[in-house]
């Protein structure tokens, strides 16, 4: 039995529209040491966002909404608008601390952003069709965009969401342990929960996650979340409601954040949605630290030499 209301969209013309891609790009990358969203890693100086856009366009996405901040908007637009002109529609939404629901007051001492779910909410009013959400600094691979586009075009149920489930062995780092959201699914392949494992690594005898009680094995193809979500337009109502509850409970905490998995989990539990885990065998990589950049460049070169991408994308 599927979790959710099982309702179809009243206006099925929405499904004749191409899906939209929302790119979360408001962070400056303090650990990285610069605006990593525009740092060149490709042979033609392309950034990870360029590869995400290239993959999304060829998978059939019709619009991109960039979630950015006003202080680097001009620089951002100058880079991407000439490259994307005539290829995909573009819109912008601006994330800031003071964008909160009416009736709530911002703690003047707060400096930390509100989190990924708040960032998605910034696109309310700009997106009326099924959408995917990704991080700006993660390379997801063309297979992921193809799988998500196929889901968004063919799923006519407004209660059916999705996420890309990466095989954990495709997301590990040679530099040490990683933190991943390990997905738990039911017999229908739908998400029942995401368990955050803060220390996962490959040892000589396999992949393990570590807890105070010891180490525990993970199968090579265990699905993990890398923040690639497929959502329906009703998500904005759920975001407003969920963020309001979050502010009531944790709004005065200076470092509290409202994340997409919290939104998804709450609405799975209350029966509003189901979330299908789409299997993906693509290699994921990210650029969190400046030390990650050489490895990212090597992987892009490998994919380019294999014919997955042209030497110059645009």
Summarize the structure.
The chain contains seven helices and 13 strands. It is an alpha/beta fold and 314 residues long.
How would you sum up this structure, described in words?
Strands 1, 2, 3, 4, 6, 7, 8, 9, 10, 11 and 12 form an 11-stranded mixed β-sheet that branches. Strands 5-13 form a two-stranded antiparallel sheet. The chain has a domain at 19-157 and 225-270 and 283-305: Spore Coat Polysaccharide Biosynthesis Protein SpsA, Chain A. It has 314 residues and is α/β, with parallel strands linked by helices. The protein is built from 7 helices and 13 strands. Helix 1 packs across helix 4 (142-154). It is globular. The chain has helices spanning 48-59, 73-84, 116-121, 142-154, 235-250, 260-269, 293-305, and strands spanning 20-24, 63-68, 89-94, 131-135, 138-139, 160-167, 178-185, 191-203, 206-211, 214-218, 223-231, 274-280, 285-286.
């Amino acid at each position: 039995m599927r979790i959710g209301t099982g309702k179809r969209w009243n206006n099925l013309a929405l499904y004749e529209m191409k899906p939209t891609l929302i790119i979360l790009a408001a962070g400056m990358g303090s650990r990285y040491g610069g605006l990593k969203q525009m740092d060149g890693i490709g042979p033609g100086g392309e950034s990870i966002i360029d590869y995400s856009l290239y993959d999304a366009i060829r998978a059939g996405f019709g619009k991109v909404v960039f979630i950015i901040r006003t202080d680097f908007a001009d620089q951002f637009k100058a880079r991407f608008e000439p490259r994307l002109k005539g290829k995909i529609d573009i819109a912008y939404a601006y994330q800031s601390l003071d964008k909160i629901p009416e009736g709530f007051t911002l703690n003047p001492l707060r400096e930390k952003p509100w989190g990924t779910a708040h960032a998605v909410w910034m696109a309310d009013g700009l997106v009326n069709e099924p959408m995917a959400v990704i991080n700006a600094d993660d390379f997801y691979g063309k297979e992921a965009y193809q799988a998500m586009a196929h889901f968004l075009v063919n799923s006519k149920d407004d209660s059916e969401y999705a996420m890309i489930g990466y095989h954990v062995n495709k997301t590990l780092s040679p530099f040490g342990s990683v933190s991943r959201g390990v997905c738990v699914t039911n017999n229908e392949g739908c998400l029942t929960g995401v368990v955050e494992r803060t220390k996962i690594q490959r040892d000589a005898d396999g992949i393990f996650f570590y807890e105070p009680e010891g180490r525990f094995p993970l199968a090579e193809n265990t699905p993990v979340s890398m923040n690639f979500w497929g959502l329906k337009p009703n998500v904005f109502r759920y975001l407003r409601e969920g963020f309001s509850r979050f502010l009531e409970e944790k709004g005065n905490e200076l470092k509290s954040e409202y994340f997409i998995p919290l939104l998804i989990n709450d609405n799975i539990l209350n029966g509003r949605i189901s979330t299908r885990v789409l299997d993906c065998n693509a290699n994921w990589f990210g650029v969190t630290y400046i030390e990650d950049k050489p490895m990212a460049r090597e992987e892009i070169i490998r994919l380019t030499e294999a014919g997955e991408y042209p030497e110059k994308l645009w």
